[in-house]
């Protein structure tokens, strides 16, 4: 990258029919898309047309939102991400394929093997979003049903990632010779058993798949607690984060890059991509109309459930949605900072229950930007140039239309400003993003 102007990295966060809780009801969305591989094929095609770096599928190991189970008002039946990405690896050529997998409810051998397989299938485009899983609903689907405390989950995650990296190094890059004449398939001295013995895992190894094309698939992290940020600083190459102001984004960015430096890493070896929910129009009025239309699709039961959740589990069912937030239904002052903030906003701006749930439902922690391509590019450029971001994780509200708008309108604007690529260069995701291919722990080749 030396000499050339620094450019943004862009990822797309693909949530079935879109980020917005009512995206599936949008007139341009097929409500049955979550289980239609053709839908994802279309979405990944648009993302590659927009020259995106990464295509990301988040995941949980349960229907985590218990209100959805009760209300039946959301697309909660969908694919397992690694399986879907394997299919999509066949219909895409350049974009990185990132899937979430939990370190709490998996074993390192499984994860190392699956991501190595995806890296081969895709020609070096696999990425693993390392999560520790925080929902009791997920724990209830495994083992003793107990969710370990966060500190233990992150200790396990650290050991898990170390073991996975070790397993990926099982085979030297040139271990397989496949020589018909001599009858030697691989050099035994190029194969390494891991012999890992730790607090959580005992793993002999080696892995029964060769070293992945990228050496190691990309490591992605999105923790926001101290333990989460610590793991990101040690091993994360892509960092996802929810930041709502440039000021906060800058301090998060500086903290993470500083910690990474202390770990002996180059700051450019991790890319911080805050989430961004864009609604783009050819004019501000058009963008506003799209926003209002989306918001009009939120069913009051869904909005209410979201608001109740954010208020710490209060029951608002007996109150008129167009009336004020009832004082007596709220937890006491200071009971919880988020509910305190919401109550404060409701009082200050005289918001009704509906006003408030409309605000809460759409953002879910990420900034929502409604405007023209130039408005959205201005915002992104400020964050990129002032030390708040290396790029963005774009969260389209509805799919494929919300991504199509971004690719058709915002991407050309960023390209005009010289801040985004005009073609893919390189073949693996590491090459395309300018991230180094890890050297095997067993040493360089041919030494
Ligand atoms: C953009 C983004 C994507 C995330 N994707 C997932 C996911 O797919 N599955 C999951 O369990 N957690 C996911 N998380 C949650 C994080 O992994 C993390 O648990 C959360 O930010 C809280 O931080 P902490 O674990 O350090 O407390 C995501 C977070 C962000 C910001």
TrEMBL record:
UniProt keyword Transmembrane helix present: no
One Pfam family cited in the UniProt record for this chain: Bac_luciferase
NCBIfam families: FMN_nitrolo
Single Gene Ontology MF annotation: monooxygenase activity
Stretches that traverse the bilayer: none
SUPFAM superfamilies the UniProt entry points to: Bacterial luciferase-like
Descriptive protein name: FMN-dependent oxidoreductase (Nitrilotriacetate monooxygenase family)
Keywords, sorted A to Z: Flavoprotein, FMN, Monooxygenase, Oxidoreductase
Family: Belongs to the NtaA/SnaA/DszA monooxygenase family.
Recorded superkingdom: Bacteria
Annotated binding of FMN, by residue: 59, 100, 154, 224-225
UniProt-listed InterPro entries: Diverse_substr_monoxygenases (IPR051260), Luciferase-like_dom (IPR011251), Luciferase-like_sf (IPR036661), NTA_MOA (IPR016215)
Occurrences of domain Luciferase-like (ranges): 35-298
